[in-house]
Amino acid sequence: MIVTTRQLDLQHTWTIARNSSDCKHNVFVQIERDGLVGWGEAAPNIRYRENAEKTTAVLDQARIVFETGDWLAYATMRRYWEPITENQTCAGAALDMALLDWVGKKLDVPLYRLFGLDGTQTPVTSFSIGIDAPDVVRRKVAEAAVFPILKIKVGLDNDAEILRAVRDVTDVPLRVDANEGWKDKHEALERIQWLETLNVELVEQPMPAAMLDGTAWLRERVEMPIIADEAVKRAADIPELATAYDGINIKLMKAGGIQEALHMIHIARALDMKVMLGCMIASSIAITAAAHLSPSVDYADLDGNLLIANDPFNGVTVDHGRLILPDRPGLGVTERTGLNARR
Ligand code: MG
Question: 20 to 30 Å CA-CA from 315: which of 50, 239, 305, 339?
Fold first, then answer.
């Protein structure tokens, strides 16, 4: 197993309610057997106490799992690394992706086929606009004109200013993500009621994950679907959220991989909840991995690779917002020649 960290540079400084950054350090995994290589990626997130060093250390511990064993028995393999990656779920996601990429190549099928999904039934992805000054927001929205849906980050003290700047430039449907930024339920209610006048189709994680009762209170008072993001990592988290949220945002990095994400989709459906497939800032490896599940979800927010300037890989592409899955076996991702070539 080869483990490397690469710096991914953002096209614009990325600001959300929690923090701000110009680059990300993601950890890449390569496994090889029978002349076939499987690729995986971990996007460590500070919200979950992850970073590239800790992730790399965990991946080193998990190496032994891949030294022997039947790699086609991927569901069994997963049981061996999960206890190791429990506190750095992004590391588990990288291993799961790499293994499934390899399995797809070994069986000579794209991943969506392995899961019985129709690769032509992909949703449109939203494109995310980070928090910024109004003139920058207007410019970013203008640059994103090809996307039929935008996701707007809010949750600081300039929400109204940002939404007005967006609406100066476009009238496309919006999704709003407060990233736990509204700390008071009355404040959240007021803001969502205002968003309801602005053609906003859903709001993501309006209040802190820990404020479950407050969110349930809010949900009784608004029409707009409320989607859990920071409140949900894995399938076991979902049942109690059904009391306060209309849907969940599944991310491979939180879930610990594609297999757990599939499990989450099934649990959410059983609870009659909406499913969004989201992402961290990541290269085309992790974004393509998630995109292979996208035919089975209601909302896709898979733009993490589009926000970076030096994606080292090619994979899923976007045509007027619609996700186009590669047809090659496994993830179908290829490494770009001329690393760090800016697009
Ligand atoms: Mg979110």
Answer: 50
